[in-house]
Every structure is written in C-alpha cells, then in structure tokens.
Design a protein that fits this description.
Elements: H1 3-20, H2 22-25, E1 36-37, E2 44-45, E3 53-57, H3 58-64, H4 69-72, E4 79-83, E5 90-94, E6 110-114, E7 117-118, E8 132-139, E9 153-159, E10 167-175, E11 179-191, E12 194-205, E13 209-211, E14 216-218, E15 221-235, E16 238-251, E17 257-259, H5 270-278, E18 292-293, E19 300-315, E20 321-337, E21 348-366, E22 373-394, E23 413-434, E24 439-460, H6 466-471, E25 475-498, E26 501-512, E27 515-516, E28 528-529, E29 532-545, E30 550-562, E31 565-569, E32 577-581, E33 584-597, E34 602-617, E35 621-622, E36 636-637, E37 650-662, E38 667-678, E39 681-682, E40 692-693, E41 696-707, E42 712-719, E43 727-732, E44 750-754, E45 759-767
Parallel strand pairs: 6-9, 13-18
Antiparallel strand pairs: 1-2, 3-8, 4-5, 6-7, 8-9, 10-11, 10-45, 11-12, 12-15, 13-14, 15-16, 16-19, 17-44, 19-20, 20-21, 21-22, 22-23, 23-24, 24-25, 25-26, 26-29, 27-28, 29-30, 30-33, 31-32, 33-34, 34-37, 35-36, 37-38, 38-41, 39-40, 41-42, 42-45, 43-44
Amino acid sequence: MSSAYRKHVLLLGAAAALLCAAPAAAQDATEVETIVVTAQKRAEDIQDVPMAVSAISGDQIEKRGVTSVTELARFLPSVQITQSNNNRNTTVFVRGVGTSGTNPGIEASVGLFLDGVYLPAAGPIQVNLQDISSLEVLRGPQGTLYGRNTPVGAINMTTRAPQQAPEAMLTGTIGNYADKRLGGYVGGGITDNLAGRLSFWIADRKGYEHNLFTDDDVNGSSQRGLRGRLKWTPAEDVDVNLIAYYAHINSHCCTPDVLDPTGARGIATPGFLAASAAVGRPFRNYDDKDHVVDDDYEGRNATDSYGASIQVDKDLWGGHTLTSITAYNAYDDNITQLAADAVPLDVSRGFQRLVAEVYSEELRLLSPTNQRLEYIAGVYLFREDMRYDTQSVAGAQATRVFPGNARVLPGEFNHFYYRQATESAAAFGQLTFNITDTFRVTGGARYSWDKKDSFIASVNSPVGTAQFRSAFPINVVGDVSRSEKKFTWSLGAQYDLTPDIMGYVLAATGYKTGGFNARAAAPNTPYEFDAENSMNYEIGLKSTLLDGALVLNVDVYRTTLKDFQDSLLNPVTGTGFIVGNAGERRSQGVEADARWRLTRDFSLNGSLSYNDAEYTDYTAGQCYAGQTANGSKPGSCNFNGLRPSQNPKWQWSLAFAWTHDIDFHDTALFANGDISYTDSQYLTSTLDPRSYQGSYTLLGLRAGIQAQDGRWRLSAYGKNLSDESFYLQTTAHPLSFLMSAGGTAAVDSFVGWYGPPRTYGVELQVRF
C-alpha cells in the first residue's frame, strides 16, 4: 500500500470515526443552513435535487472572507480554476475537464451563468464576489436545461434580490501586498411595488512577484465594479427583475517564472547565457518557486465586462409560471502589453484584444409542483459577435544566433485577425413523473442548432526574414462557415429511502459545438475541429441526518468524453497553436461533501473527490519537444492509458466555523479556519515532465469579534499560511524561436504562473 494511499485511508477513517461519535455531540446542535439552488430552473432545497451539485451561500462566502471564484473552488469537489498570462486565459475544470482559455475559437466545457444568463468567457469570474446570494456548481453534463455548452458542468452565480425592508452593508479590508478593498450594498423599497439594490466593489493590490529587471512588484490587480437591481411587481401575478452590471479589472499581469532554469532542459544553457550577457542583459533568475521573475516587458491587461437582463415571471392558469429572460452581455479583454517571454531580453512586444457581445432570449414554462406530472419546457436563442486580434513584434534582441549575426529583423511583425458570428437556437424540456410519493422518474431532452461564420487571416510586415515567417507564417484562410445540429438527453430516477435520505441514478449527455482555430497557424494546418460530446453515468445519495444537524452527500460517476477539443502551443517553434479533437478520455470517481453543525456555536464543512482519469483512445497525440514518437501517425505519441493534465487524483478540504457569545456589550468571538489539499498533476496537455506540479496543502484562518446581532464584524485573516509555492499553469516557453540557446538552436524550456503566496490582513464589516 503506497504512502499516499495510506494517508487518504487514514483521513477517511478519521472522518468515519468522527461521524460515529456524532449522536452524542449533536444533542444540543441546531439544524444546518438550508441552501436553495436553481439547478433545475426552480428554487429547490439542494437536498431534493437528483444530481451532483454543491453550493455555498452568500453568507458563508462573506464569513469565510472568500473574494473570488478561483479561491472558492478549493472548497468544492472536483473543481479547479486556473489562469496564465492574462484574465482571458482563465479556465474552469470540473472532474478534470476544462477548456484551453488561450484559444477564443474553443467554447467553454463548463458553462458559466450569472443570474440565469450565460457568460461568453471565463475572465469575468475573476472579479470580486460581492453581494452574492448563492454559488452552485453542477457536476456532469447539463445538456437539457442549460443554454449553450455544458458538456461537463456548470457554475451558477445568483446575486441578492432587492427587498422592501431597507438594508445596507459596508466592508473594508487592508492587507499585505498593499491590498485595499472596499465593497458594500444598499437597498430597500422605493415604492410599494418597487424595490432596488445597488452593490459596488473596489479592490487594489500590488503584485505577488518581484521583478529583478525593474526592481518592482508585478502581477498586481485593480478592480472596480457596480451592479444595480430593480424588482417591480406591477400586479399580484407578475414579477419583473431588471439587472445591470459593470466590472473593470486593470491587471499588472501576468509575468511568468522560468521553471528549473539549470535543469537538463532548462533555459540556462551556455549559449543562452553568453547571448544574454553579450547584449548587456545577463540572465539572473536561477531559482524557481520563489515568486521572483526577471522580465524587461511587464504585462498590462484591462478587462471590462458589462451587461443587462430583464426577467419577467408571469403566473398562469393552474399554478403554471411563464418566465422570459432577455439579456445582453459584453466582454472586452485588452492586453496592451503581452508578457510572454519571461526573460530580461527585448525579445518581442505585442498586444491581444478579445471583444465579445452576446444577445440571448430564454422563454420557459414551468408547471406547478406537488402533482403527478411536473414539467419544464422552453426555447433558447443566442447570438455572439466576437473579434480577436493579436500582434507580435520582434524586439531588438530577438535572434536565434549570437549577436552580430541576427537572422530576425527588429520590428518585423505578425498580425492575426479572427472574426466570428455565432447563432444558436434550442428547444428543451424536462418531465418528472411522481410514480409514488417516494419514487420519481425524470427525463429531459434538448435539440440544438448552431451556426458559425468566421474569418481567419495571419499577415506579416511587408519586409521580413524567412526565419521569422517560418515561425509566424502568412496564412489568409478567409471566410469559413459551419453548422451542426444535436440532440442531447438525460434520464434519471430518485427514491426516498427515508424522509431524510434520497438516492438517485442519472444518465446524461452533453455537447459542445465544433469551430475554428482562433490562433495563428501555418498554412495547410487543419483549422477546423469537430464537436465535443460527453456521456455521464452517476449514482448518488443525499442525506440529512442527526435531526438536521448533518448533511452528507455522496456520488459515484463515470464520464466519457469523445473528440475532446484541445489547443496546444506548437512545441517546435514556441509560436502558433495547434487545435484538434483529442480522441476519447474517461473520468470516473467518487465525490462527497458534508455540512455538520455539532453545536450551536461550532460547525464543519468538508469536501472530498477521487478522480481516476485516463485517455482510452488517443493514439495520435502531440509529443512534447524531445519525446520519442510512438503514435499511430508520423511524429505523434500514443497517450492511451495515460492520465490527462489538470487531473489531480485526490482533492479535499475541511473548514470549521466557531462563534461564542461573551458578556461584553452583546458581542461574540468567532473563528473560521480551513485546510485544502490538491494532489499532484501535470499542467500541460502534452504531459511534458517539466509541467509536473507536486501536491500542495493550503491553510487559512480568520478570527475576530462581532456584534451578536450581526451589525458589525472585525476580523484578522491569513491565507496560505504555510506560504506554499505552486503553479496554476505551465507551458513550453512562448516565443522560444526568438531566443538563442547557442548557434541557431532555440531555447527549450518551460515557464509557469504562480498561485497566491501567503496573504494576511484585517477587515471591518458594518451593517446598517
């Protein structure tokens, strides 16, 4: 038995022993908080939903001091969120499956929804979590009720609705790295049938990494955001919700670190060191995982996301409800300075900009509940207009040979253009047959039609070298188009074993449209890829035990993904991307989450996931640089039996919350702590050994004093208290073609982007 396996067995054994002791501890406990979710387009207790869904309430988010979805992912089973060299390159993984954020032509495998509206990109989730009612993660395909593409899962964020009662809150935070945050909301009745709510957030911090070249901290962030909500009830049977928001992120982001520079395939070769020293910019960053970088060109990334939606709910005959959601969302990610080379040389300068506008309409009819047949039926219309531009300009020290014999001209450039219009329409429905009071069967279906019209062109400066054009080739594809139709379905059953324990089985399919490579590639390289399809089988148990003091949910799943869409940096040139369908892969495992209120003052929250993933039919994968080809096609590698990247076998977390009233001006002491573990994994799709990220454990603690009635709260906090150094993402060295390893050979190295180091501070929250 391996030591890692023994460790997890001991952890599970300890948890089991703790549960066995529960009855005695729970005698004076009260019930855990009820979490209401909209996973099935209805407001339901999470314990009644027959699928793998985890959720956290807005109150829990505030008490734990969670400020972003990326941070929150640590407490949710089978969820990871990564980011590389800009906000656009944010990727959400569920059960080890996500999407390459570097390629705008590939749609997300995990759907993101804000107040019931699909978001066109993952970048907006980097904004602060402010005034959230609940956040829920649906694991597994959601191909029936959810618009657009959700082959492996969905994240639903719901903001707090206006109330007639007046309310207001203000939170201020000061921390290390010059972290300053201010946020809050104000709301209440405007007239007898109109209520409003206004939320805002401001956040600024310096960077987590120190740049040797500029002697400055880099990878900092500045955020601003505003959201307004109006709830109007013009008649007893009509509710109108109007939501508008704007969020801005201005990032000093994101300069990577060079991995293992003195290793066998590191960047610090004699040729590279000599070439760097010869131009007066010697390489000095010999240590990795120290939050120190060395780059002459620091990234600048401004991201704007904004939109508005209007939801109208109309009560009809016999308890039916007709709902219409009309929405507009826009996303503008502008990288004015692209930091990619991670060295102090003037290798390349450039920019990237992605602009997307989305219009959607969802119309659905909900039957009343508590009857023999319950159903949902609807239609969904979607249009997205997207524009992506990127330019790379050779710098003064861009060369693959020693200085004085340059084969790349400073100033020559490549400009890549991508335009795409996407139209989609779908009809969907779900029917639940309550066979008995304790046994229910649910089936759902969706028929989707999608069409994409795109324009692709890669052009170079009028004067340039053959060497530069071999890495950045001219490739004017022009207008391209594709359309497809797809039927997806779900079928499940649930049975109430007792009034407090429900078991379910579920089979569901998911789908993600094909498309076109939205990054520069050589002529004759395939630019079109096919749809991605998923099939999921799941068995689960949801239980509320110990007179409501303990909620324990467990599921076992098996997901097969066919024609997985992948985008990889060309390992030969270090420029350009290769996109294709990566055969078949399988993920299977166990997930659990629990909420336990031992006493009135003390509660525990835990999550656990075990994921056994492998490629089952992928014999022509892309080899990493230097790997011996053994695949079914020339120059390819056989991935069968290998574990895909971004697939930690184990993830778990445990958090506690404690409060205790004291006899001092009606106050209470409180403490919240957490520990989370992420197993080792590869971070790059080629499974290059240099992308291996070892396991890491993160610790957090928040403690302070508060008013017993919740009017104010003062706390001190620390995150990543053990100061673990780890990478969220790694890749082969971008722009390696432009850097000399001696003679005409390019460097062959790796770079990575850090997760946050230890942070700490104080926070004051006041409610009015």
